[in-house]
């Protein structure tokens, strides 16, 4: 059986005809955590947006394939893509608070987002959410369900965002800088939470981050990008402890003083 659930094969991505990601290949197995690192503008977000069909009107995958469970994502109709977004691949962003609707409670938003994918009553949605909140050790699940985003801390909104992305139990989670807007103790909690998802559900995760400490704490494999090209791709131990490329060494040297290694 092919264990790969997501494969990028020689992918080139262009905006307005100009290529910004060149010939990038990687794959993801069930439960694998891939760290995507590289300086600002290297193409990390663009790579993950491509699989979600979120490149916008100017963006296009101009070469290569992206396969999700043996389906070429680039060839399927928009309706099928919508099913993959959310139910197949969940996504969390840097600032979940900003992507939540400010005038509706977390509970209402959960119910609405689940209804897009499945026939479900409000009370079924609530019971699924409460179950997941409990598994993720939320202290006050009922309060989170009833709250508006502004009533929760930034960290709690981010944790709620992770829970919302996981409600349909997608086999893959894309996390784009999920910890960078948070203070260090909340960062640790969010990292622990993502590891817990893998433990509980076998979720595979692609984490985009500038924080090598987060990569060390989480990733099995690491892909280093520079100017839209792959600089190194390998196991986390190999890339982080024995980097082959000077660019990777430079990225790693930029952080050890912070000693951000997250203990989980
Ligand atoms: N909508 C767009 N239109 C034109 N160019 C874009 C668009 N989105 C991204 N780009 C370009 O694509 C390249 C990669 O950007 P991307 O945001 O993927 O980098 P990144 O590595 O995620 O950066 P950061 O860490 O700052 O988020 C950059 O040169 C950027 O200017």
UniProtKB/TrEMBL annotation:
Instruction: List localization entries.
Output: Cell membrane
Q: Which residues form the ABC transporter domain?
A: 6-252
Q: Does the keyword GTP-binding apply?
A: no
- Enzyme Commission designation: 3.6.3.-
Q: Which GO terms describe its molecular function?
A: ATP binding; ATP hydrolysis activity
Which SMART domains does UniProt cross-reference here?
Answer: AAA
Q: How does it sit in the membrane?
A: Peripheral membrane protein
Q: Which GO terms describe its cellular component?
A: plasma membrane
Q: Does the keyword GTP-binding apply?
A: no
Keyword set, alphabetical order: ATP-binding, Cell membrane, Hydrolase, Membrane, Nucleotide-binding, Transport
Mind telling me which InterPro entries this protein's record contains? AAA+_ATPase, ABC_Ni/Peptide_Import, ABC_transporter-like_ATP-bd, Oligopep_ABC_C, P-loop_NTPase
Q: What class of enzyme is it?
A: hydrolase
Q: Name one GO biological process term.
A: peptide transport
So what family is this one in?
A: Belongs to the ABC transporter superfamily.
In Swiss-Prot or TrEMBL terms, this protein is called: ATP-binding cassette domain-containing protein
Organism of this sequence? Blautia wexlerae
